[in-house]
Amino acid sequence: MAAFLGLVRRDLLLSLRQGGEIGLVVGFFVLAVLLFPFGVGPEPELLARVAAGIIWVAALLAAVVSLDRLFAADHADGGLDLIALSAMPLELAMLAKVAAHWLTTGLPLVLISPLLAVFVDLDPAAIPVLMLGLLIGTPALSLLGAIAAALTLGARRPGVLVSLLVLPLYLPPLIFGTGAVEASLAAEGARAHLLLLGAITLAALPLAPLATAAALRQALD
């Protein structure tokens, strides 16, 4: 556990010192949401109907932007080899890196989402459901994205390949995340959608590190 927390702390410090990655993800998220009203029109009724989808799609795309750098720096400087040779299981190390990735990308998106929800005229009563859905669903984005990042490690154009691999996997969180907000607005209750969203994250929690570690072993060999 000490090694696990140490790896999380290391990745967090590196991200905070560089700063650019966090700013890139948050900036992309904000700009993507702000541009939607110019494309679909400024009518409040129209924006209110698609607000949840706008924020979730922007969050998915912002997560994809950061995936190609999840392992790239450690792969370039030999850090991945040291992690693979350490006493800590590689699966646990991958979980630590995913946790650090979520803390520097997913969590900021959750925290800033209420402000953007107001901008796209989402009903204030649905904002807590939106935040809860993002809080439950964004860890799954990092977990599933780590698999794609590991599979494309060392590729010539990893960003394009990561997008092709991971976007189909992101459809269930998108569907249930937006469905939760729409159900809350329709007074049907968002509990079922949030439970399904949580089930995706819980299923990915043990399985994604196993798949990521297997892909990384293949890449390092």
Q: How would you describe this structure to a colleague?
A:
By secondary structure, the protein is an all-alpha fold. It has one domain. The protein has 10 helices and no strands. It is elongated.
Provide the domain count: 1
* CA(first)-CA(last) distance: 27 Å
Radius of gyration: 18 Å
Low-confidence stretches: none
- Roughly how much helix do the residues carry, as a percent range? over 70%
Number of helices: 10
Strand content: under 5%
Shape category: elongated
How many extended strands? Answer: 0
* Helix and strand run: HHHHHHHHHH
Seen as an oligomer or otherwise, the chain set is: single chain
Q: Whole-number average pLDDT?
A: 86
SS-based class:
mainly alpha
Keywords:
221 residues; mainly alpha; 10 helices; 0% strand
Quick summary:
This protein has 221 residues and is mainly α.
Secondary structure layout:
Layout lengths: L1 H17 L1 H21 L3 H24 L4 H6 L1 H7 L4 H30 L7 H25 L6 H9 L4 H15 L5 H30 L1
